[in-house]
Specification:
It is an enzyme of class 1 (oxidoreductase). The chain has 311 residues and is an alpha+beta fold. The chain has a single domain, classed as Roll (2,3-Dihydroxybiphenyl 1,2-Dioxygenase, domain 1). Helix content is 34%, strand content 19%. The chain has an 8-stranded mixed sheet, with helices on both faces. Strands 8-9 form a two-stranded antiparallel sheet. Helix 1 packs across helix 2 and helix 6 packs antiparallel against helix 7. The protein is globular, with a radius of gyration of 20 Å. Bound molecules: 2-oxoadipic acid and nickel (II) ion. The site of nickel (II) ion has 7 residues, from strand 1 and strand 5.
């Protein structure tokens, strides 16, 4: 008996890698801070090439309506072998999120996925009407007719309009009630952020405090909601993020308005107490704090909110 992977597993690995590369490419084009962070890290001698950076996780936002939302979106990454893990609830923001662990078969160093969904039925009748005006044109789950083994098709799907371009009036009405709703109605499945694993950088930059100090010295504007560094109650997941890039967005009828796009996140996952005796060169992802933290995430969402972008 051989245990070598069958052809379809190899194909899926390649498709997943191509899909992730496509997401990163378009995201880097849209978010100048990505290159600016890489350039600052190169200039400081933290890295010799951006390829050395470990991507801790990527994040997506969805509208919780029939045929869309997490139930539809997650099918893409479950197909490539991601596994659905813990649920997180954000009562005030009316959001549900899950994280997905990457398939171990590729060495286990692929990004985790954090995906969230707006509980549209908890919004005001007016906001629900606005959202449904766009999303009701999606009358069957678009992922069901997508060939998930075709990387180019998946890449196109993730970057295509799922519904009509909103009017500026609708965008503003949503913004007043749910900044998340406004973000998704315009940005859809565009990558919301990627995340630099700070703990795997070289000493003097491998804690979030040191890395944030470096970013601030270099003039990056960081999300201050709940404090610049968000710390989980166990102390082992520490996160910070930039304030979202502003984009000149064209709305239906040609009106242009500056809106929040995507941002960059930084995460330090500390070694779990049981493994702190291990020598550094034996530490892998399995020895570090896993998953996410509701209290941290609640504030990181605000990286795209007017309270941060308008500071
Ligand atoms: C996600 C915010 C939460 C994290 O790492 O906890 C998050 C978002 O802004 O969509 O990224
Ligand atoms: Ni994140």
């Amino acid at each position: 008996m051989t245990t070598s992977p069958n052809k379809s597993t190899i194909d899926r690995n390649q498709t997943l890698t191509a899909v992730l590369d496509g997401l990163m490419r378009r995201y880097s084009e849209r978010v100048p801070d990505v290159k600016k962070v890489f350039d600052a890290m190169l200039d400081e001698g933290i890295i010799a090439s951006p390829n050395e950076i470990e991507n801790d996780h990527i994040a997506f936002r969805t509208m919780g309506v029939p045929n869309l939302g997490l139930a539809s979106f997650e099918k893409i990454f479950l197909h490539y072998g991601y596994e659905k893990r813990d649920e997180y609830n954000f009562t005030e923001k009316k959001l549900t999120a899950y994280w997905y662990s990457p398939p171990a078969r590729l060495g286990g160093n692929l990004p985790r996925i954090f995906a969230s969904e707006l509980r549209v039925d908890e919004l005001s009748a007016e906001a629900q009407r606005i959202i449904h005006r766009y999303t009701d044109t999606v009358t069957s789950d678009p992922v069901d007719v997508l060939n998930l083994d075709d990387a180019a098709a998946v890449d196109a799907f993730l970057h295509q309009p799922l519904w009509q371009t909103p009017t500026l009036a609708d965008y503003r009405a949503l913004l007043a009630e749910s900044e998340y709703a406004a973000w998704v109605i315009y940005n859809r499945y565009y990558l919301n952020h990627f995340t630099i694993s700070v703990h795997n950088l070289k000493p003097s930059y491998n804690t979030i405090d040191e890395f944030v100090a470096f970013l601030e010295r270099r003039g990056f504007r960081l999300n201050s909601a709940g404090g610049t560094i968000k710390v989980s109650p166990d102390g082992d997941l520490r996160q910070a993020s930039t304030v979202a890039q502003m984009l000149d967005a064209e709305f239906a009828g040609g009106e242009v308005f500056r809106i929040a796009g995507s941002y960059v996140e930084f995460a330090e996952r500390r070694v779990l107490p049981d493994f702190r005796h291990l020598p550094t060169n034996q530490i892998t992802r399995a020895h570090r704090r896993e998953g996410f933290e509701t209290g941290n995430a609640d504030k990181i969402f605000e990286s795209t909110f007017t309270t941060q972008t308008g500071r």
